């Protein structure tokens, strides 16, 4: 089978295209800049996989029918990346009505029983999709008969209508609306996506034709199978989180293609203002040499952490959940080693995680973080300065951002490995670090991050 074609967009584009080409993938729909940098001619306009920035800019979304193949290569090539799979939530089932109650029908669709807001007949078979997979503590899901067939540029919706995304320029929206009314099959609607804007009309027609054929297959399968049964499942998408070491690896890859300043991707992930600064600095580097980039990177990093400033701590779980830990004030900042010492004040009540020691009013902690270190340490004290405990956390290497420290927590690493969230290589690295930390604490009890 031919390698998938991949469309890449976002702040990691150049580095990812380099990585993908080195691994034999084809690049689809490259931007003019990307095509020029890599000498891509006659690139495919059809993509099997699309990579785009996550809203956080610290992760990328990998989606499409062959997304798994690309995600596996990214996990292999990026040293500390984490992987999360997400279903699109548009599965289609053939269910059977088990009970009718007032205005609601209880439909067994295999995964569980769902609520369909209309009166049917017990034993009746019906095609449904869960409109909400989880409704709190209830044992039921909400169901809809308005099933959705997922495409690249549009979705086909049973008993739906033609629509375009909000904020789309009126002229383009009108063109898509008119095209949708011409193409939609009876009893189906077309929901155009933003990606349809930059696509030739012929490709949009082909897309809708594929969706119509898929819908025909689904309806045919629904007639043949016995309820309850899953009859359609969109491809899974993957979120690959790119921590510090992986960002550095992507910096290296980008540097093989075009002038790249140190910490390019970490700084670009901070937002547009910093991304613009990086672009300007790299243009100067191409004229005056790499020294400007090294100096500028140091100046930028030193500027976002200042003595006496308040620093937020983003304790990120592999599933993307961000816990905002008690912030701290910078007591000391060693610019040479990028080591940050924070003083944090804690409220009373509860106990300290990992220590089991009660939190009391007036307690404070001294937390030490170093850019690029997978170890952070907090020493807890009472109001009188008495030692209450030491907690060492092992995570992905610490990153900095404007007035912020960020890392991905790797607690329960074996469980993360078993679930495919982290690689065997990263797991072994975590175990090795944990053993060294344990030996260091037992032997010295110091706060070294080495």
Number of domains: 4
Which shape, going by the Cα principal axes? globular
Largest sheet report: 8 strands, mixed
Low-confidence stretches: 133-137
Beta-strand percentage? 25-35%
- Count of DSSP helices? 11
Helix content: 25-40%
Mean pLDDT across every amino acid position: 92
Describe the strand arrangement of the main beta sheet, using strand numbers. Answer: 21-20-19-18-17-16-23-22
Using the CA coordinates, give the radius of gyration: 26 Å
Number of strands: 23
Structural class comes to alpha+beta
Distance between the termini: 47 Å
Task: Explain how this protein is built.
This protein has helices at residues 13-22, 32-38, 67-77, 170-183, 201-224, 244-255, 264-268, 272-288, 291-304, 413-418, 424-443, and strands at 5-8, 26-27, 49-53, 59-63, 82-86, 92-101, 104-108, 113-116, 125-132, 141-144, 148-150, 154-158, 188-192, 229-232, 237-241, 310-316, 322-334, 339-345, 364-370, 375-381, 387-394, 399-401, 404-408. The protein is α+β, with helices and mostly antiparallel strands and 450 residues long. The protein folds into four domains: 5-86 and 238-243; 92-232, no CATH class; 259-304, no CATH class; 310-411 and 438-443, FomD barrel-like fold. The strands form four sheets. An eight-stranded mixed β-sheet has the order 21-20-19-18-17-16-23-22, with helices on one face. The longest helix is centred in the middle third of the chain and has 24 residues, at 201-224.
């Amino acid at each position: 089978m031919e390698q998938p074609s991949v469309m890449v967009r976002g702040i990691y584009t150049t580095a990812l295209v380099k990585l993908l080409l080195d691994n034999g993938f084809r690049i689809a729909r490259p931007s003019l800049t990307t095509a020029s940098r890599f000498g891509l001619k006659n690139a495919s306009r059809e993509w099997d996989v699309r990579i785009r920035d996550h809203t956080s800019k610290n992760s990328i979304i990998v989606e499409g029918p062959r997304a798994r193949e690309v995600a596996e290569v990214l996990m292999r090539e990026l040293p500390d990346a984490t992987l999360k799979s997400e279903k699109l939530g548009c599965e289609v089932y053939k269910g059977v009505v088990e009970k009718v109650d007032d205005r609601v029908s209880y439909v067994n669709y295999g995964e569980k029983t769902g609520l369909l807001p209309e009166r049917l007949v017990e034993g009746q078979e019906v095609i449904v999709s869960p409109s909400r997979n989880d409704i709190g503590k209830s044992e039921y899901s909400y169901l809809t008969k308005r099933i959705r067939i997922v495409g690249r540029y549009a979705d086909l919706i049973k008993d739906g209508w033609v629509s375009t995304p909000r904020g789309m320029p009126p002229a383009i929206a009108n063109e898509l609306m008119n095209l949708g009314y011409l193409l939609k099959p009876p009893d189906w609607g077309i929901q155009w996506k933003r990606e349809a804007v930059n696509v030739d009309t012929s490709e949009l027609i082909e897309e809708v034709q594929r969706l119509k054929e898929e819908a025909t297959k689904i309806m045919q399968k629904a007639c043949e199978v016995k309820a309850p049964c899953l009859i359609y499942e969109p491809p899974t998408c993957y979120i690959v989180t790119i921590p510090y070491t992986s960002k550095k690896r992507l910096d290296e890859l980008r540097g093989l293609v075009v002038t790249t300043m140190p910490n390019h991707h970490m700084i670009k992930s901070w937002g547009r203002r910093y991304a613009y600064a990086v672009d300007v600095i790299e243009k100067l580097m191409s004229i005056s040499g790499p020294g400007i980039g090294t100096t500028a990177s140091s100046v930028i990093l030193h500027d976002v952490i200042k003595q006496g400033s308040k620093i937020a701590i983003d304790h990120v779980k592999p599933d993307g959940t961000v816990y905002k830990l008690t912030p701290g004030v910078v007591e000391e900042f060693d610019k040479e080693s990028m080591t940050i010492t924070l003083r944090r004040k804690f409220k009373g009540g509860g106990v300290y995680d990992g220590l089991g020691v009660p939190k009391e009013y007036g307690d404070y902690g001294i937390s030490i973080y170093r850019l690029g270190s997978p170890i952070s340490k907090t020493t807890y004290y009472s109001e009188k300065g008495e030692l209450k405990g030491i907690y060492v956390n092992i995570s992905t290497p610490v990153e900095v951002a404007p007035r912020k420290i960020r890392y991905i927590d790797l607690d329960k690493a074996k469980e993360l490995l078993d679930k495919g969230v982290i690689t065997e290589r990263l797991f072994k690295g975590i175990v090795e670090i944990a053993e060294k930390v344990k030996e260091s604490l037992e032997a010295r009890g110091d706060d070294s991050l080495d």
